[in-house]
Amino acid sequence: MRGVMYMEQFFMVLAPLEMLVINLYVINRCSMRKYSRVRTFVSMGLFVCVLTYVSYHISSIAPDFGGGNGLFVFSGFVFFIPIKLLYQLPVTKIVTVACFSWIYTFVLFAMSVRIGYAFTIPGWSLHATVLLLQTVLYIATIYSFNRVLKNRFIVILDQLGRRESIALMWMTMMWFWTVFIFNLSLHIPISSYTRSFRIQLSLSVF
Q: First vs last Cα of the chain: how many Å apart?
């Protein structure tokens, strides 16, 4: 029984970790490193290991940290510290790039969770199902996402002035929080009327 619980916690951490790898890849593609590639990757890797260890233990004592609600995204804010230290990128562009990447990874995570809840076989791990579905979705979409990132997003980001950069930052932040709140609302026990209102409010932003 204890072994099954540990495996559930392990899969619970792996899905956000997979998202983190994609997000760090996007940051690296959109930013200029201050130090060598080896030093940057080793420093970020150590930080990821520490955060993964902490997240694993948090998930064991705080059940609400997992379950597909996406609350783990708050731990991602601590990555602004190493990103600012390791890359030459203004704060506005760090936030913009992070939210742009989070939108992509979190949408696929939310889709994986909803599909997982609908089709998980009794006795099979939900978190393992979510991880499998998320990996398949990444494989199916990462090439197209990378093309948009390389040929559109980075080009636009490099040409923006200060005012436009700030406006884009706020826009990407609003899009990300809309996706996050929409997913979270599906995990909160509320009336059907309130849930319908939240869904319509989230969709109206787009």
A: 45
Contact 92, 166 (CB under 8 A): yes
- Per the listing, tokens 């696929």 go with 108
In angstroms, the CA 4 to CA 16 distance is 19
Q: What predicted TM-score, i.e. pTM, was given to this entire model?
A: 0.79
Dihedral angle of Cα 183, 186, 189, 192, to the nearest 10 degrees: 130
Radius of gyration of the CA atoms of the chain, in A: 18
The residue behind tokens 């949408």 is 107
Burial 22-58 (b: 16+ CB within 10 A, else e): bbbebbbebbeeeeeeeebeeebeebbeebeeebbeb
* Residues pairing with 33 in the sheet: 87
pLDDT digits (tens, 9 = 90+) for 136-161: 999 999 999 988 988 888 888 888 88
Kindly state the tokens that stand for 138: 């990444």
Distances (CA, A) of 173 to 2, 51, 103, 166: 40, 23, 9, 11
Between CA 118 and CA 91 the distance in angstroms is: 40
Rounded (10°) angle between helices 91-119 and 162-185: 20
Q: How far apart are CA 201 and CA 49, in angstroms?
A: 38
